[in-house]
Each structure stands twice: as structure tokens, then as C-alpha cells.
Write a structure and sequence with these properties.
With about 400 residues, the protein is α/β, with parallel strands linked by helices. The protein has helices at about 5-25, 45-60, 75-85, 90-100, 105-120, 125-130, 150-180, 195-205, 250-255, 255-260, 280-290, 330-345, 360-370, 395-400, and strands spanning about 65, 85-90, 185-190, 220-225, 235-240, 265-270, 300-305, 320-325, 350-355, 370-375, 380-390. The strands form three sheets. It has a six-stranded mixed sheet, with helices on both faces. It has a three-stranded antiparallel sheet with strand order 9-11-10. It holds the Pfam family MMR_HSR1.
């Protein structure tokens, strides 16, 4: 990577850290940047920079210092002792936001597991700071347990959470099984955090899932029905936002939340078209989809926030794509049309005649296929139908019965 690219990536990452702080209800008072070949072993920053930080903390009455990279337990401890304020890193900040945002039982358990996984190797000497988990950013620890006093207790608690998560995952598997039985076409909305996924999800399904200009606004997968222009209904699932350099503990813990994506028949990949590091965001999402073995699922790329860019000079990097604003009704209609178009390309065309005494078959065909034409013939006492069908769907049995070449 060129020096210039490295610097750009660094400043983008710093900007993201600011957005994370805002999401955690904090206010950034000052930023300190240091260029050095490698982080200081004891303090992460050099000793001269440490003195500069002490002055800023005193003058501006700063209460919390957040490092943009993961700190070792020793570095966090030494910084805390030197600066005399709480010190956390990017991973702890993300964990904190996840802790505040988790709504479902599974989400909460996963966050707690991730917090313990992160804390375990950092326990040594964090005693005082951890046993008094108060209010504020980076303090939403797992309960009041005196973490430093008993590693065994933490390991037992982690095993217990893993057991409970297994049960929840099995329950989710049952829900999925039921959905498969209902044979609904599933569309997953994925994207880098803050790309506008939840706004789009709400407008596509006309629901009111949590929607805010904050990172990680959605943590728990939500599913709603979405009606396409042909009135065919699909199941739309919103997912947690992807992010670069996600704490390892969190990637593991949120695996099952993201596994919803693997069940999808189509992925809507939402990208903030106005983001300065749009390509990085795209790559991050593709990389994670690959890790989830979901990179072979058909995808429609949705470039969002077109109102913030110069459309004439916009160059997409993924196809098929749409350029939209999630707040416009016309854009919502475009996505639904494109979704239907992709489905038709994957599915099989059919046409046939259904006698009116076969009303049951007609009802199934209306529900489970994209019906393009349905005309009643009085003389023949039945319906001419045509449309598109998933060749794997059980409704094929009815279609084969009435199919005409």
C-alpha cells in the first residue's frame, strides 16, 4: 500500500472512530495523532506525546481517552496510571455500542460473550477499574462480577453463555425451517454500517425498525414481508452493519446473527455512494460474505445517498446495480422492480390453463409464483395464466399439471 493510501485509510478510520463515539453518546473534544514506525511498547504513544496528552487532558478537562487501535492490557494500564483518566480502545468502544444496542436474548448473550472474550487476556491488574463498572462509555461490562478475582468464574460463565447460545441458535434453526416450509423467497439487506440499510429496509417493508444516523443502528436481524410490483411477497431481512477491523471477539460472537445471510435467495448490498472510502467498504462486505460462504448468492448492489453525489460522474464498481436515495418513493419502486427482474432471470417461465374447479391450484400459483397474466374465459370455464416460477418450488407440481407449450 502506498504511503498516501495508508494515510487516507488512517484518517478514514479516525473519522469512523469519531462517528462511533457519537453513536455511544460521547463528544470528541480533541484528537492526537502521532507518526512513528511502531507503537510504543509501554504506552502505545511515545513519551513526548504522552506529556502533550497530559496537558490537553488537564486544560480541556477530558474524562476519557480512546485509542484507535487495540491496546494490550499493559498499555491500557500504563496509560491509565500516567494520564489518570479512563483509557479504552476502539474494540471496547464497539463492544460498548453493541451492549447498548442488543435487543434480543441472543444479541445480549453474544455481546456478553464477546466482552468476556476481550477481557480475559487483559484481566491482570485491571482490578480497581473493572470492579467499579459505572456509567459512561466503555463501562457497560457484563454485570457486577468482580472480574479480576476469578478467571475460573469467567470461563464458567462463558461456557454457560455458549450453552445458552446453542439453544437459541437451535430455536432460530427451527424458525428457519418453518420459513423454508412456507417456501418464501428470502432477500437479505447487507452493507457497511451507516450505509442506510435500516432506512431502506423500513421503506421497502413499510415497517418502523430502529432507524437513526448512527453506526450499528441494527444489531438483531429483523424480518418483514415486502410486496413486489406483481404483488408477489418476499421475506426481507435486515442485518447488523459490517465494519473494518471489527474486534475478533465480536466477529465470532455475531457469526450466527450474520448467518441469516446464508439463507438468502438474493442479497441487497447497500453502499453509501457518498462515502470517501466507498471501495474499502465494498471490499469489507465482500470479504465477510466470503467468510460466511454467502458470496455465491445472487446480489443487487444498491448505491444509496445519490442526493449527496454528482450523478453524472458516478462510476459503479459492481453490477447489476441501482443508484438511489432510500428516502424517495421512486427509488423504493426501482429496487422492487430490479429485485423482480433478477428473480425472473433465475426462474422459469410458464403458461397454462386452469379449470375453475381447480381453485386450490390457482390460489397456490397466485401465492408462490410471479403471476404476469390471469384471464378468465367464460367459454372454457377457467383461467389462462402465465408467469415465472422457482423450478425448485413444490408449486411446480401444479404448474406441470396445467402447463401448455
Amino acid at each position: 500500500m502506498h504511503q498516501q493510501d495508508k494515510e487516507e485509510k488512517f484518517y478514514d478510520s479516525l473519522q469512523e472512530l469519531e462517528a462511533l463515539v457519537k453513536t455511544a453518546q460521547g463528544a470528541v473534544v480533541d484528537k492526537v495523532v502521532q507518526k512513528r514506525p511502531s507503537p510504543h511498547r509501554r504506552y502505545y504513544v511515545g513519551e513526548g506525546k504522552l506529556e502533550e496528552m497530559k496537558t490537553i487532558i488537564e486544560e480541556k478537562e477530558i474524562e476519557l481517552v480512546i485509542a484507535n487501535e487495540e491496546l494490550s492490557g499493559g498499555q491500557a494500564r500504563n496509560l491509565h496510571e500516567e494520564l489518570d483518566v479512563r483509557v479504552i480502545d476502539r474494540s471496547q468502544l464497539i463492544l460498548d455500542i453493541f451492549a447498548a444496542r442488543a435487543r434480543t436474548k441472543e444479541g445480549k448473550l453474544q455481546v456478553e460473550l464477546a466482552q468476556y472474550t476481550y477481557m480475559l487476556p487483559r484481566l491482570h491488574g485491571q482490578g480497581a477499574a473493572l470492579s467499579r463498572l459505572g456509567g459512561g462509555i466503555g463501562t457497560r461490562g457484563p454485570g457486577e462480577t468482580k472480574l479480576e478475582s476469578d478467571r475460573r468464574h469467567i470461563r464458567n460463565r462463558m461456557d454457560d453463555i455458549k450453552r445458552r447460545l446453542k439453544q437459541v441458535v437451535n430455536q432460530r434453526e427451527q424458525y428457519r425451517e418453518n420459513r423454508r416450509k412456507q417456501q418464501l423467497f428470502q432477500v437479505a439487506v447487507v452493507g457497511y454500517t451507516n450505509a442506510g440499510k435500516s432506512t431502506l429496509f423500513n421503506n421497502l417493508s413499510k415497517s418502523d425498525s430502529f432507524q437513526e444516523d448512527q453506526l450499528f443502528a441494527t444489531l438483531d436481524p429483523l424480518s418483514r414481508k415486502m410486496k413486489l410490483p406483481s404483488h408477489f411477497e418476499v421475506l426481507l431481512t435486515d442485518t447488523v452493519g459490517f465494519i473494518q477491523d471489527l474486534p475478533t471477539a465480536l466477529i465470532a460472537a455475531f457469526r450466527s446473527t450474520l448467518e441469516e445471510v446464508r439463507e438468502a435467495d438474493l442479497i441487497l448490498h447497500v453502499i453509501d455512494a457518498a462515502a470517501s472510502n466507498r471501495d474499502d467498504h465494498e471490499r469489507t462486505v465482500y470479504h465477510l460474505l466470503q467468510e460466511l460462504a454467502a458470496d455465491d448468492i445472487p446480489m443487487l448492489t444498491v448505491y444509496n445517498k445519490k442526493d449527496l453525489i454528482d450523478e453524472e460522474h458516478f462510476v459503479p464498481s459492481s453490477f447489476p446495480y441501482v443508484l438511489i436515495s432510500a428516502l424517495e418513493d421512486a427509488s423504493i419502486h426501482t429496487i422492487k422492480q430490479e429485485t423482480e427482474k433478477i428473480m425472473k432471470e433465475q426462474w422459469q417461465y410458464y403458461r397454462g390453463f386452469i379449470p375453475e374447479e381447480n381453485a386450490k391450484s390457482l390460489a397456490k400459483i397466485r401465492q408462490h409464483t410471479i403471476l404476469e397474466k390471469e384471464e378468465y374465459h367464460e367459454t372454457k370455464e377457467g383461467y389462462d395464466v402465465s408467469g415465472y416460477v422457482d423450478p425448485q418450488h413444490p408449486v411446480m407440481k401444479e404448474i406441470k399439471e396445467f402447463h401448455q407449450e
